[in-house]
Design goal:
Rossmann fold; 13 strands; elongated; six-stranded mixed sheet; alpha/beta; single chain
Length: 354
């Protein structure tokens, strides 16, 4: 019986690569309005799936799919997958690291530059005729503009995207680039001109803070009332990582009270953000609709690698990215006792084993 794959993500897969391997593939777009029952019906009999952010691929979905061996998402985020459940069931949760590193780092820089150089405000003033009709207003902008040179820049999370941001920001001449990342050695940070510091030191010394860490239980609401209170009054906060890292209520209060100067968000705790959310009425906040990683290039590359993850695993090879490497042990035990969902599928490389 041929292996079966379902693509329910936004990226259309190249069916020829699956057909050449004798694997059946179906493509059906699902989204936020797809019911869990319909989602399960699509995935119930497949061996591999290319998925998106929504619907959530939670324990109920995974347990209802006895043949499922791999779920693959484009990008680095896998927060829509129940990783403990996938690991316990022997299902690989895969991603595609590196496909949008440049785009996200660029977007973080764009938000920071827009806020430091008042791009939105000055553009709006010129288009409203104030350059000629209200020169006092234009003159006032001059005293509000900021430079990055000579400042301290803080990066929370020094993975691929954090490093790419560090490379970009160095060209603007900051006095110091500091980072909080307990999983990165200083020898690695040295390669990017970054000094590793405690979270408290970063919060209390940085003029500009950008977040590039994954959403985990450890980072949930890492930016909250307490951490915002420790930031400098002139701090600008950028988040192009995941919405739940920042407590939106605490951020709203901090911005409205002038506790920090401004913020730029590409992600929010609820997505799409409610049009009535009070955050959207704050002038010193820019919000973009979770597009930091998007470009035609990253879209094509992500879709290709997302599909390749599934094909590689089902043909006995290692995927591009594995978010739950502990699953390798689970699968080894299954193969040694009752192979279950892995019956008849060649073993992939053990190079990823812990």
């Amino acid at each position: 019986m041929a292996l079966k794959v379902a693509n329910v993500s936004r990226a259309m897969a190249d069916t020829s690569m699956f057909e050449a391997a004798g694997i059946e593939i179906s493509q059906q777009l699902v989204g936020p309005n797809t019911s869990k029952a319909d989602y399960i019906d699509i995935l119930r009999g497949v061996d591999g799936a290319m998925i998106g952010t929504l619907p959530l691929t939670d324990r109920e979905v995974l347990e209802a799919c006895p043949n499922l061996k791999i779920v693959s998402r484009s990008g680095v985020g896998v927060d829509s997958i129940d990783l403990p459940a996938a690991t316990a069931l022997g299902i690989l949760a895969c991603n595609t690291p590196g496909i949008n590193t440049s785009e996200v780092a660029d977007h973080a820089m764009a938000l920071l530059l827009s806020l430091t150089r008042l791009v939105r405000e000055t553009d709006g003033a010129v288009k409203a005729g104030q350059w000629s009709d209200n020169p006092q207003r234009i003159a006032a902008f001059r005293g509000q503009l900021r430079r990055i040179a000579g400042s301290t820049v803080g990066i929370i999370g020094l993975g691929n995207i954090g490093r790419a941001f560090a490379t970009r920001i160095r060209g603007f001449g900051p006095k110091r680039i500091v980072s909080y990342d307990p999983y990165i050695p200083q020898t690695t940070a040295d390669l990017y001109g970054v000094q590793l510091v405690s979270l408290d030191e970063l919060l209390t010394t940085a003029d500009y803070i950008t977040i590039h860490t994954p959403a985990t239980s450890e980072t949930h609401h890492l930016i909250n009332a307490d951490t915002l209170a420790r930031m400098k009054p002139n701090a600008i906060l950028i988040n192009c990582a995941r919405g739940p890292i920042v407590d939106p209520v605490a951020l709203q209060i901090a911005l409205q009270a002038g506790q920090i100067e401004a913020a730029g968000l590409d992600v929010t705790e609820q997505e799409p953000i409610d049009p009535e959310d009070p955050l959207l009425g704050i002038d010193n906040l820019i919000v973009t609709p979770h597009i930091a990683g998007a470009s035609p290039v990253s879209g094509i590359e992500g879709g290709r690698k997302q599909a390749e993850n599934v094909l590689l695993v089902l043909t006995g090879r290692s995927p591009h990215g594995l978010a739950n490497p502990e699953v390798i042990k689970t699968i080894a035990v299954m193969r040694a006792t009752n192979a279950g969902r892995w019956e008849g599928v060649p073993d992939f490389s053990t190079a990823l084993a812990l």
